[in-house]
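[SOLVED] Need 3D model of a two-part complex

Original post:
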Amino acid sequence: MIPADAKLSMQGVLAGMLATCSGDGTPNMIHVSQVFYVDPKHVALSFQFFSKTARNIAENPFAEIRCMDPATGDRWIIEGHFVRREVDGPLFEKMDMQLEAVASMTGMTGVFKLRGADIYEVLKIDRFPLALPEPGAPGTAGG
Amino acid sequence: MKVVVAADTVAFLRSLPGFMATRDGENRPTACESILLELDPETGVGEVAAAARYARQMTENLRDNGRFALVVSRVWHDHRSAQIKGRCLGVQGPLQSPERVRPAIEGFAVMLETFNLPPRVVRDFRANEADRWYLVRVQVEEVFDQTPGPGAGKRLS
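Solution:
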């Protein structure tokens, strides 16, 4: 279940990260332009041109997804399982429109092109604060 | 298997923090905020600092099978991106090493500042240099260009 305070990091504003692994056990890591909240149990990632990732997901549907809260810098780390790719429909159109805006702002018009909205089931999600713990806090030296 | 890595690629990979992906015995991937500290262009042997706070099962994965991938990307600027893949040769730490991780952290902090994030985000990011890091010795076996565009995925070494 995706916590409500994680949604801010899933609005496609900041790039996310996606770790996958091939069937023969070779990890792979890429940036993804968008991580999008779909519903309490699913997120969508922009599928653009990362063919190695597409092959990995076909062989092994488990992935780790990271996104960042733009207000705090905190990381949200998701253990996900690939469910399906949508190539049209309302979610695709929404992500496509936003990706075009991102491409325009970052000089990537003509390079960024949405080929699909990859839907992942969220198996587990954890928050990792960016700020270091205060000295003396539990789990720190002297705490 | 060792590779020769172009000096320009080494310099880029060392210039910013990236992410190191590992996987467990069931091929489930996980990642950790990491910085390439050193990479010998002739032998492909290098050292990566991996943030202990985000490491979770990284060290167990590296001891289990040693496979890793490290990606560095100027996603906040010109999107240049490169990835190295290979095997772990050993893990030390975690320990503090602010002077070694500082250049890459500072490089990214400057980029964050231009992205209009709240000042506390940049401040907290810089403070991470005082955190504890695992030092992972690696043998690089493959290098890929991952810059978005027609060359994405091209093998560089």
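Edit: Chain B has five helices and six strands.
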